[in-house]
Design goal:
Blueprint lengths: L6 H34 L17 H8 L1 H5 L1 H25 L6 H9 L6 H11 L6 H8 L15 H26 L3 H9 L4 H12 L1 H16 L3 H6 L11 H11 L3 H31 L1
Length: 295
């Protein structure tokens, strides 16, 4: 078959053959569900009946007119703040462990290990850490002379930051490894030239290291923003959205709308709005970073 075709046509056939299966899987498991999600957002489907009554933009009007739906975004703010702290700490450890520090490989592995743990297992583990009466965190505070039984998961103003700190512990090592790879890609000649010119460590960090890491920092900030908006597993396992809905996130609200109240149409509209919100936030982030690079 291929003997009668020239090289260019054979190349095209091979490329199409190799791309056919991945594109089919992508269309089946990504684009088709996305199209169905958009369709369901204009219906009042309950999730199991064959009828899907068309309601037009009513679901979107319900989302934007119900302040309680958007109020849960306030709970996601704690994850965004801790995500920024996580990136700062990761950059610090990346710079330190990229130097000729003795035992740096051991510390890299030690800090990366939490990332490979299962998310549900991490949640249950920190459930014992944050326990009010017998939790290890309060026991540590008692041993330091701080006698206060803090309800880490029971106070409205504290619960989300307690949960978000779990993510900091788990994902910091992953970001650190990415930053280390970025640091190792910076040519050493630049640092040697800066040293000859008399630049100190702080000047080298601000003028050479961070500007060269900017694309990777932008990538990790993108992951931080999307992760903060889409968090689900930690509050679901540890608090079920409590106390009194104080730790319920937007994704938890979407899932409750779909599976607890059987309103798949409204849940689909909420999902589409979340997607658009993520696109807007990431677009603003790229705009800010782009302007910073021009300056």
């Amino acid at each position: 078959m291929f003997g009668t075709l020239n090289y260019k046509k054979q190349k095209i056939i091979i490329i199409v053959a190799f791309l056919l299966i991945p594109l089919a899987l992508l269309a089946t498991f990504t684009y088709y569900p996305a199209i169905k999600l958009i369709y369901y957002s204009f219906t009042n489907w309950d999730g199991y009946s064959p009828e899907k009554p068309w309601v037009g933009l009513d679901n979107y009007r319900e989302v934007f007119s119900n302040s309680d739906i958007f109020k849960v975004f306030e709970h996601n703010f704690a994850y965004f703040v801790m995500g920024l702290v996580q990136n700062i700490v990761a950059i610090y450890f990346a710079v330190v462990l990229n130097s000729k520090l003795k035992g740096r490989y051991f510390f890299r592995i030690l800090l990366f290990l939490p990332y490979i743990m299962n998310g549900v297992a991490v949640a249950f583990m920190f459930g014992f850490v944050f326990d009010t009466t017998n939790g290890s965190l309060n026991l540590l505070l008692h041993s330091l002379g701080i006698h206060s039984d803090v309800s880490w998961l029971g106070k409205e103003g504290l619960v989300n930051y307690s949960l978000a700190s779990t993510g900091l512990w788990r994902f910091m090592g992953y970001n650190m490894v990415i930053y280390i790879a970025s640091l190792q890609a910076i040519p050493s000649d630049i640092y040697e030239a800066a040293k000859i010119d008399g630049a100190n460590s702080a000047q080298t960090l601000w003028r050479i290291t961070l500007p060269n890491m900017k694309p990777v920092i932008g990538l990790n900030l993108f992951l931080t923003v999307t992760g903060a908006l889409e968090v689900f597993d930690l509050p679901f396992v540890l608090t079920k959205g409590g106390p009194a809905g104080a730790s319920q996130t937007y994704v938890m609200r979407v899932i409750d709308t779909a599976f607890a109240y059987n309103n798949y149409g409204l849940a689909s509209a909420m999902s589409i709005i979340l997607l658009l919100f993520v696109i807007v936030v990431v677009g603003l982030q790229q705009l800010v970073l782009g302007r910073g690079g021009k300056n």
